[in-house]
Write a sequence for this structure.
């Protein structure tokens, strides 16, 4: 028997307890021992919870109890969770967490602290999809060329609604909030931060790279307009909040989260609604694709319990982030300005002759050539120029957009979405 | 350093050697030790191979060498491979195999023999997709409700060509043979046997069930006609060679391989060409989907090396088939006649009044009701009735088809394809 203490008994914590009970037969057969949730730590002891374990508000009742074998950290947040997990590891316990924010900031310190202790975190990325183990174990023979992920179900639900049903951003956000897919303050999801935390975890496993959320490009979906949706549909694109980790031509690691236009022909473009999807391109295996539920109590608990079973089977842990020794030479984070891709631009301009020529000239001066363009009138005086570029450099496009603004050729802030192929 | 002996240095064996060399930096960092292919066993020593390891025709040079840590079995076939693997395990070596036929027949004996030795086989199912580890480790908290797989790239390539380009079976087979996707004798692939071997491996991990290929329903794609393709397209279906493992309403395990009509809306229907795909439905996690290359030297070697790295990291193995102790009560294999699904039928009949009524009556007598029907004339005297049924029982439909034949209502053997939803 392994005794489990659960710190944070919310939706996921309750699911963990319920599944350990409901599926006890198969879990015990697979683990070889019974996994018994014994005690849960909560902040509000009076709140009703659908579990039969003992509850306490004192986390040390778990951390200092020598009979507790595994601590499951489901409290969320960074600082407090970090203290809890550190103490659990120091007390010799195995730890399982679903906390992506904690790992986004402290994964390397925790790997160091864990040493030979098992420290697992399958639930931290893409909920029920076993992508951590696929990347860390299943694809370990490969140099990873790229990882493209749809890792935020809230954004994917919203973007799917916008593109399939033409619903405007504000309306679909309201709907997502009513359905419980989006928080009252949706910034963490729609701003791309949640996806960025997950991206950093995957990047460490793929590339052994230690960076923080502050170091990488993160853009949200808040400024996507119905014109952008129109352009996407017109030219065979879908719009996804894409998390990208990839090696660029300088052998540096690009890490970025932003909305992207991707061809509807790509398998990953077909990952719709609240689903998550991850496409991994390995230098030897080629592309493998993983799709499934990225959130929800039971799906997340499924991943947490998979880790518990793994610990029961094997005792000691894998190298937490997949590297037993650092990669020789290491890999550097690419500069944000060095991104090279195609771009979609939405420019609000005066609807009069000569404007288009000036815009094209300014773009041309930065070596940016136009691939497709549509002009959509707004009223008698103004129009939106919707255009896509050929491959160019992020620095150049930013420079061109700045020039368009300083020369007063655009009537409002230009919008830009990267096109990924 | 771990020394590796490779038994069978064909396409995959050569890829294993080449990748261990080409990706040595990242493999060593992930494994913590260098993985060194040292000796290869071949049947024809004079055949040119693109590897630099020592070659021998004497397998005992590997099996009896105490300095060899891991034996990689890539010789294929059942009986000889079984002897080699048995001896390797008895001599205390870890074993990695890609041999699905061996596992289809001997996986339980081998699990017994392996004991605490590592015995891994990620490459045996779906090539580069880490589906063994996803199912055994990632989804271990779940009762598996169903596994639907597209596990044979040859068949999927052929069926995709047939449905997308209208190419006839014989022509696409010839083309697949020219491209090297199909063998000169294609029976093992197009007859469904290759997929069945893989299915049995997955079924053991999901259900702990010990059955042999002879025990299960296996039908190939050889009889799929252009009429069937026409019907499929007309009613929104794709045709796939589907491997199914699922729990039926009697809580028994259905295991079957056969062509199936599936809705084009299903994600797995979008797995086209030589790709493999597996949809797993867990009772808690819901559906997760895995897509990637199911064959090819490098993709298969990627899975073999992932196992090598895993062994280097962890030493002792997981429970080979995922169960530390047998599932209480166990699960029984469902009878073939107990399948309940929808069916598509192709019946060649005389084109005269009264025939359709008689056919409908015979079906109705077995409680089979028709959902869709198309009548396509063949010549002035004959027509094909193409129809789909509502949900019914396999025993009933077989009985009805027999009656149609004994009463001479059909002019040739009726064709039947299951519709899976």
């Amino acid at each position: 028997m392994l005794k489990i203490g659960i710190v944070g008994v919310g939706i996921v914590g309750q699911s963990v307890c319920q599944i350990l009970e409901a599926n006890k037969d198969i879990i015990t057969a697979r683990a070889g021992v019974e996994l018994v949730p014994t005690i849960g730590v909560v902040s509000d002891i009076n709140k009703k919870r659908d579990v039969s374990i003992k509850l306490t508000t004192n986390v040390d009742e778990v951390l200092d109890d020598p009979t507790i074998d595994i601590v499951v950290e489901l409290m969320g947040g960074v600082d407090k969770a970090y203290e809890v997990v550190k103490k659990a590891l120091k007390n010799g316990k195995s730890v399982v967490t679903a906390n992506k924010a904690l790992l986004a900031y402290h994964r390397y310190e925790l790997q160091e602290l864990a040493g030979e202790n098992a420290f697992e975190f399958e639930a931290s990325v893409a909920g029920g999809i076993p992508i951590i183990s696929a990347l860390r174990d299943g694809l370990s023979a490969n140099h990873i060329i790229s990882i493209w992920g749809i890792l935020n179900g809230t954004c994917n639900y919203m973007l799917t609604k916008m593109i399939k049903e033409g619903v405007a951003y504000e309306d679909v956000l309201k709907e997502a909030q009513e359905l419980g897919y989006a928080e009252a303050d949706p910034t963490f999801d729609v701003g791309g931060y949640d996806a960025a935390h997950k991206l950093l975890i995957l990047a460490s496993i793929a590339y052994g790279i230690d960076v923080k959320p502050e170091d990488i490009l993160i853009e949200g979906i808040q400024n996507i307009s119905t014109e952008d949706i129109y352009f996407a549909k017109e030219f065979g694109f879908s719009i996804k909040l894409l998390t990208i980790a990839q090696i660029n031509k300088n052998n540096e690691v690009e890490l970025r989260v932003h909305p992207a236009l991707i061809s509807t022909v790509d398998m990953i473009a077909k990952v719709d609604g609240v689903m998550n999807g991850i496409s991994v391109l390995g230098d030897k295996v080629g592309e493998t694709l993983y799709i499934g539920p990225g959130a929800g109590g039971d799906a997340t608990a499924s991943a947490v319990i998979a880790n518990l079973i793994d610990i029961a089977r094997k005792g000691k842990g894998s190298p937490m982030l997949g590297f037993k020794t650092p990669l020789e030479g290491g890999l550097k984070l690419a500069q944000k300005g060095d991104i090279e891709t195609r771009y979609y631009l939405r420019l609000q301009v005066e609807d009069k002759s000569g404007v288009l020529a000036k815009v094209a000239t300014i773009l041309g001066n930065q070596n940016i050539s136009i691939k497709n363009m549509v002009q959509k009138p707004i009223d008698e005086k103004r129009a939106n120029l919707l255009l896509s570029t050929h491959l160019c450099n992020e620095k150049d496009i930013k420079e061109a957009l700045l020039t368009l603004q300083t020369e007063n050729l655009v009537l409002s802030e230009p919008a830009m979405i990267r096109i990924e192929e």
Observations:
- The radius of gyration of chain A is 24 Å.
- The mean pLDDT of chain A is 96.
- The first strand of chain A starts at residue 2 and ends at 7.
